[in-house]
Specification:
Oligomer: single chain
Number of strands: 10
Strand content: 25-35%
Shape: globular
Number of helices: 7
Length: 230
């Protein structure tokens, strides 16, 4: 269980100071698929960064099973991220001088895991494991990023607009892989998107605007990646 209580976040100083999160309180169940939905500037990516430990809140608490991240030192927070969470962003952030297998192995090494062959097979890249990022399509590169994140065996997978740079066919494919792997491995998914259609895939949708949660609702029937609009 992840709980955020009255989380506040500011950027800048003086007259240019921005109040990015304004007292956000949220509970996320283990094994759930939660979407943070909102327009650019609504605070959803800031909330993802704080919930994942990439950034610290200026006030409030972020707890994982009762452990408050604000009480951790920088070294402890780094170890927490390595042990608990995986990240997938709109940009792939692959190392161009490493092939597919070595990019994914890098993720596995962060947690001391050597079990990444099955992940490569699961995302359909086993036959291309010796190729380099420049030899792959955008969708294949994003699948490498998915595999790298999951090779850590994270308890929580954070995704920030993972299909933003992909065409429809490839975007659906990547989302379908994520859902199937979640069902197999039972990790929690927290995804940021501005796409209402993608929100139809989630268990829980949190709609944000101007640094606040406007609405939280449950989908009674989740749609697959191939059932949603685009």
């Amino acid at each position: 269980m992840i709980t955020l209580q009255n989380v506040q976040k500011y950027y800048g100083k003086g007259e240019s100071r921005c109040h990015a999160l304004k007292g956000v309180t949220l509970s996320i169940s283990e094994g759930s698929f939660l979407v943070l939905l909102g327009a650019s500037g609504s605070g959803k990516s800031t909330l993802l960064n704080i919930a994942s430990g990439l950034e610290r809140a200026d006030a409030g608490s972020v707890c994982y099973d009762g452990e408050d991240l604000s009480h951790l030192s920088e070294d402890e927070l780094t170890k927490f991220r390595r042990r608990q969470v995986g990240f997938i962003f709109q940009q792939y952030y692959l190392l161009p001088h490493l092939n597919v297998e070595k990019n994914v192995k890098m993720g596995a090494d962060l947690s001391g895991s050597q079990d990444y062959d099955e992940i490569l097979k699961a995302v359909g890249l086993w036959e291309k494991r010796k190729k380099y990022p420049s030899q792959l399509s955008g969708g294949e590169q994003q699948r490498v990023a998915v595999a790298r994140a999951l090779a850590k065996k994270p308890k929580v997978l954070f995704l920030d607009e993972p299909t933003g740079a992909l065409d429809e066919e490839t975007g659906r494919m990547v989302l379908d892989y994520v859902v199937k792997l979640q069902q197999e491995r039972h990790f929690t998914v927290i995804m940021v998107t501005h796409n209402q259609n993608i929100a139809d895939m989630a268990d829980t949708v949190v709609r944000m605007n101007s640094g606040k949660i406007l609405e939280t609702y449950e989908n009674q029937e989740r749609k697959s990646a191939y059932e949603i609009g685009w």
